[in-house]
Amino acid sequence: MTTTFIADPKASTTSNPTILHYTFTSESVTEGHPDKVCDYIADSILDAYIQLDRKSHVACEVLCKEGHTILAGEISSSGVVDAEQVARQAIREIGYTDPEAPFCAHRVQITQLLSKQSSEIAQGVDAEKNIEHEQGAGDQGIMFGYASDETPELMPLPILLAHRLSKGLAEDRRSGKFPWLRPDGKTQVSVVYEGIIPVAVSDVLVSTQHTKDVSREIVRDYVAQVLAPRVLGQWYNPNIRFAVNPTGSFVHGGPSADCGVTGRKIIVDTYGGAGRHGGGAFSGKDPSKVDRSGAYFCRYIARQLVKQGLARRAEIQISYAIGVAQPISVKVDTFGTGDHRAAEEFVRKFDFRPAAIIERLDLLRPIYRQTTNYGHFGRPGLPWED
């Protein structure tokens, strides 16, 4: 593979030298990627508890490797959930059902290391126990939300297209049209920009698990001639450089081959690196954890700034102290693309207390399994995207 710094050869000869030309790349993974398997199990357990008790406090971590799955963390709830069965069902839904593979839904050994939430954390999160008599943040930390007008979804184009490729792999596998496809896979898309405007896709990288009887050439033809034209839509062009299964083959995949852990795909889950990230993961956490609800709310507000025409790109940062309802700080960045003062005044109108966020976005519902794969942002049907 050739490293490309300026993917568009015409970029250096533009009549406007003040416009910055560059290539930006983002990656995605399929639902069968080991880390995403863990995320999906964790969110499945979270949904099961919230379905029974809206006030459940869940912080579930998962590790998968070969024939083992470990469930760990803290859960306090009036609901009773068979976490082992939920985990097996999640693995089955993803598609790991081959009895000859070490990681198989009905064969995997599940170890549970789950305890109740710390009483000291609980007294900060529960309004009845909080010294300020209102729900405080479930932890300290910083969260970011980002939006850009470069796509109708108000998302950066590279991550949006990378997700479409990953989701397309899963759709083609499930449809049976390409029976040699297997659950694990990764995608990567490079987009050429002129200033803040995406102008072309230069490179596409796809690594997809497959059966051992399929050649690399067959996989490459499928990606370049079937998958990419269909899912890239208007962004497909015949000059795209394709790299498909660069190692030559990808037969052994998923947790049977690699260890998966919850929360290791935080850039895939958000903006593909185009926006800042506070470091907190989402999956397995109920909305009292501001890592999740705070990031969702920041995305919600950043979207409003762009939709209102106050900025073409917008980013919101908030920070919290554990057990305290009001945020320590709120920062607005419009990157010089709009009316910064008006944007700040607009953002001041919002209530960033955790209880207010949960109420406004109606987050005490079992909606989290649908967020796990192909990005938590830029997809319809999620309250922070409406």
Short structural summary:
This protein has 9 helices and 11 strands.
Please, could you describe this protein's structure?
With 386 residues, the chain is α+β, with helices and mostly antiparallel strands. It has a domain at 20-28 and 157-253: 2-Layer Sandwich (GMP Synthetase, Chain A, domain 3), CATH 3.30.300.10. The protein has helices at 34-52, 83-94, 119-125, 157-175, 216-232, 266-269, 290-307, 340-347, 354-361, and strands spanning 21-29, 57-65, 68-76, 109-115, 141-148, 181-194, 197-210, 241-244, 260-261, 313-320, 329-333. Helix 1 crosses helix 2 (83-94). 47% of the residues are buried.
The CATH topology annotation of the domain at 20-28 and 157-253 reads as: GMP Synthetase, Chain A, domain 3
End-to-end Cα distance = 40 Å
Unreliable spans are 1-15
Mean pLDDT: 93
Strand content: 15-25%
**Rg computed from alpha carbons, rounded to a whole number of angstroms:** 22 Å
Order of strands in the sheet with most strands: 1-6-7-8
Which architecture of the domain at 20-28 and 157-253 would the CATH scheme give at its second level? 2-Layer Sandwich
Order of helices and strands: EHEEHEHEHEEHEEHHEEHH
The oligomeric status of these chains comes to: single chain
CATH uppermost class of the domain at 20-28 and 157-253:
Alpha Beta
Largest sheet: 4 strands, mixed
